[in-house]
Every structure is written in C-alpha cells, then in structure tokens.
Design a protein that fits this description.
alpha+beta, Aminopeptidase, 6 helices, about 35% helix, globular
Length: about 180
C-alpha cells in the first residue's frame, strides 16, 4: 500500500525544527551572503544561542496558519527552512519565505518545498493566493518565483538597505487557479 504524506514532495520533506538541527542552522548563519539574500545580516549568535533557538523552535507549533518548517531531503539531510506568514484566512492570502543552505542550491529543493506548501495551503486550508517578496539583487529568488509561475505584481522602490545602498523589493503573486493550471 502506498502512503502519501502531505508534507513530502518528490525531493524533500517538510518537518518541524529539531534541537539537534542547531549545528546546520548555526553554520548557515555564518554565510552572510545567504543571510543577505533571505533577510538581512544579523548580529553574531553563539553556538549556545543557536542551540537555544533550535530547542525553542522545536517546541513551537504553528501560530494560526503561520509556521516555520525545516526542509530535509527524503533521506533526512537538512537543507534549509521555510515559513509562511501574514496568513489571512478571511481574504485567503498568505506569504512565504524560503532559505536553502548554500551547499544545497540548484538541486530543486526550493521548488519542491514551495510546491508542497502551496498544495497544502490551497487544497487543505482554502487559501486562494500567495505572495512572495524578493530583493531586486536576489537573481536566484527572482528565477525561482518565475520558474514556479508567479507573476511580478509590483515593485517597492528603495526598500532594502545593504552593501551601502538601497535596493527595490519585488512583489510576486500566484493564485490558486494559476497553481492548479500549472500543477494540476
């Protein structure tokens, strides 16, 4: 008998953060360029601090429909994380963010993880639209959104400050109907 697990795609499985994940997340925190692409470069955190963070994350469940998940390959290798945020059940809209550890870039893990989350939110939670914010200098994330079928819906000028200058923020969107047309 074949069992389908809603939080598994063809390459990855989404799961809660575990306390033992701290080392991989700590190593990822040392990649300042990846931090810049995903959010911002934060102040340094000790190994103990990352351990405390991982324990805290492992004890947190979803906050409404907002959730933070680890991304692991089907064989269990931790490759990144993703979260949903600004979930509004009344309007049926939400946002997501994703980070793949640099050594696992370009393996299709982000695409598979995003499709897994979108399928769940569209088919199980009745959401009808997802948005993603992308920094103008993040060519990889721009390519990911466009590869997934997201449409560029707007640009917020001079929203991000890094490397001594301001950058635009792009807003991408995908509706449930568009997702179903693309992915059945």
């Amino acid at each position: 008998m074949t069992i389908h697990y809603a939080w598994s795609g063809s390459k990855v499985r989404l799961r809660p953060v575990r306390p033992e994940d701290w080392a991989e997340f700590h190593n990822n925190d040392l990649d300042s360029e990846n931090a810049r692409l995903c959010d911002e470069i934060h102040f340094p955190r000790s190994e103990e601090g990352t351990g405390i963070w991982a324990v805290h994350q492992s004890q947190n469940g979803p906050d409404g429909d907002n959730v933070f998940l680890a991304i692991a390959t089907l064989d269990g290798t931790l490759v990144g994380s993703m979260n949903t945020m600004s979930c509004n059940a009344r309007t049926g809209t939400f946002k997501y963010g994703i980070s793949i550890f640099r050594e696992h870039w370009r393996n299709g893990y982000a695409t598979d993880a995003v499709k897994t989350v979108l399928r769940y939110y569209f088919e199980e939670l009745r959401y009808q639209k997802v948005n993603a914010s992308v920094y103008a200098f993040n060519d990889g994330s721009v390519a990911l959104q466009e590869h997934l079928g997201f449409q560029l819906e707007g640009k917020l000028r001079n929203m991000i400050y890094t490397k001594g200058q301001h950058y635009d923020e792009y807003i991408y969107g995908l509706t449930k109907a568009e997702f179903e047309q693309l992915y059945g």
